[in-house]
Design a protein that fits this description.
With 377 residues, the protein is of the alpha/beta class. 49% of the residues lie in helices and 13% in strands.
Length: 377
C-alpha cells in the first residue's frame, strides 16, 4: 500500500477498482461506439461525464481499435475558436503518431499551411497555429474532417459542453457542424453537455439540425445505496470505517453530484485515524470548510450578475424547486420588481447556467452554490 494513499480520487486517472458504478452507462456507451453510432451524453456539471468517457476509452475494445480525441469547448466563443481547439487536439492525438501522418496533416490543411514550420532534425512539419490565422474556419473544419477520414484507425471525437455552440455569433453553426460531421466516414462523435434542457432541444427537436443524429445517455446521480456501499468498502479496505448517516448526509446535501461527494469523502478519509470511524459531525465540518474554500470563487462569479438577477437567484434558492416563477405571489413574497423583470433575469441566469429548469421547475444548478446561497438567505 502506498503511504498516505487516499482511495477517493478527485482529479486525474481513476483506477478500475476505485471507479464507482456507472456499469449500465459504460456498457451502453461502449456498445453505441462499437457500432459506429454517435452519442449525446447529458448530465449536470460535475456528475462525472468526462470520467465515464475516460473509463470507457481505457477498455481494450476502444483503446486497441480507435484513436480518441477530446476537446472541451466551454470557454470558446466562436466557430473559429471551436476549430482552433479541434485542430490542436487532432494534431496532438493523430498527426504526432507518425511522420507520415504529420506530413499528411500539413498537406490536407491547405487553408492554414502558413502555420506549418519544418523540423530539419526530425524531417517533419511542425504546427504552430494562432487563432488569428483561422481566416476561413468553415473551410478549415472541412479539412480537419477530411484528414480524420484518412486516419489509419477509426476516430472517436468527444466534444464536451457541446451546448456552447448555441452561443456562437456566427449564423447556422449547428447546421454547418451537422453537415460536415454527417459527411465523415471514419469518425464518430460523443456530444457531452451539462445544460440538459439545451441539449434536449438540440437533439430532440425536429426543427434543429442535430435532430435524431445521436443515441442518448442521461447520467443521473449514482444511487445512494450503491455509493454508500462503495464508500464503506474503500474505508474498510484501508483499515477505517464511516457511518452510513455521514455518507447519506453528504449525498443529500450535494444532490448526489459525484465530484462533491468524492471531495468530501476524500477529506473525511484523510481526517479519520486508522482503526477509527468517521461520523456525521466530522463530515459536517468538512462540508463547512469546503464551502468556505470556494467563497472567493463564488463571489467572483456573482460579481458579473446584476442586482435584479441576484434577487431572483436568492428567491429561487429559498423556494426551490419553484414553478410559478412569474406569479404575483412569488414576486410579492421576495420583493421582486415585476413579473417581466423576473422573466428577463431567469433567461440570463439560465444562460449563465446558474439555475436550471427541469419539468418546468426551477432550481439552482450547482449544489455548492446552493449551499453558499442558503447560508445567506
Amino acid at each position: 500500500m502506498v503511504a498516505n494513499f487516499n482511495p477517493f480520487v478527485v482529479y486525474g486517472h481513476i483506477p478500475e477498482n476505485l471507479f464507482c458504478d456507472r456499469e449500465k452507462e459504460s456498457e451502453r456507451l461502449l456498445s453505441f461506439l462499437n457500432n459506429q453510432q454517435n452519442v449525446v451524453l447529458s448530465a449536470v456539471r460535475r456528475m462525472g461525464k468526462s470520467k465515464l468517457i475516460e473509463h470507457v476509452f481505457e477498455r481494450p475494445e476502444i483503446a486497441d481499435n480507435y484513436i480518441t480525441i477530446s476537446i472541451d469547448i466551454l470557454d470558446t466563443n466562436s466557430l473559429g475558436e471551436f476549430v482552433f481547439s479541434l485542430g490542436n487536439a487532432v494534431f496532438d492525438r493523430v498527426a504526432r503518431k507518425s511522420a507520415k501522418l504529420l506530413k499528411q496533416f500539413a498537406l490536407t490543411l491547405k487553408s492554414i499551411q502558413a502555420s506549418f514550420g519544418y523540423d530539419p532534425i526530425q524531417n517533419t512539419p511542425t504546427f504552430d497555429i494562432k487563432l488569428g490565422e483561422l481566416t476561413q474556419p468553415v473551410y478549415t473544419l472541412k479539412e480537419i474532417f477530411d484528414y480524420l477520414d484518412k486516419a489509419d484507425k477509426r476516430c472517436l471525437v468527444v466534444i464536451e459542453e457541446f451546448q456552447q455552440i448555441t452561443n456562437y455569433p456566427e449564423k447556422n453553426v449547428e447546421a454547418t457542424l451537422r453537415t460536415y460531421m454527417q459527411q465523415t466516414r471514419n469518425v464518430n462523435f460523443v456530444f457531452a453537455g451539462s445544460q440538459r434542457r439545451i441539449m434536449s432541444e438540440m437533439f430532440g427537436s425536429e426543427k434543429r439540425p442535430f435532430y435524431n443524429s445521436a443515441r442518448g445517455i442521461d447520467m443521473d446521480a449514482i444511487p445512494l445505496e450503491v455509493y454508500m456501499n462503495f464508500v464503506q468498502r474503500l474505508f474498510r479496505e484501508n483499515g477505517k470505517d464511516i457511518e452510513t448517516e455521514a455518507i447519506a448526509y453528504v449525498y443529500d446535501l450535494f444532490k448526489g453530484v459525484t465530484l462533491y461527494n468524492q471531495q468530501i469523502m476524500n477529506d473525511a478519509f484523510a481526517a479519520t485515524p486508522q482503526n477509527e470511524k468517521c461520523d456525521r459531525p466530522t463530515v459536517e465540518v468538512m462540508v463547512d470548510n469546503f464551502v468556505q474554500e470556494n467563497d472567493k470563487r463564488i463571489r467572483e462569479i456573482l460579481q458579473f450578475v446584476s442586482d435584479n438577477q441576484k434577487a431572483v437567484l436568492y428567491a429561487i434558492c429559498e423556494d426551490e424547486p419553484i414553478k410559478a416563477i412569474t406569479s404575483g405571489a412569488f414576486t410579492k413574497k421576495h420583493h421582486l420588481k415585476s413579473a417581466s423583470s423576473t422573466q428577463n433575469a431567469v433567461k440570463a441566469l439560465l444562460r449563465a447556467d446558474l439555475i436550471t429548469r427541469h419539468d418546468d421547475m426551477y432550481s439552482v444548478s450547482d449544489p455548492l452554490l446552493d449551499l453558499w446561497l442558503k447560508e445567506r438567505v
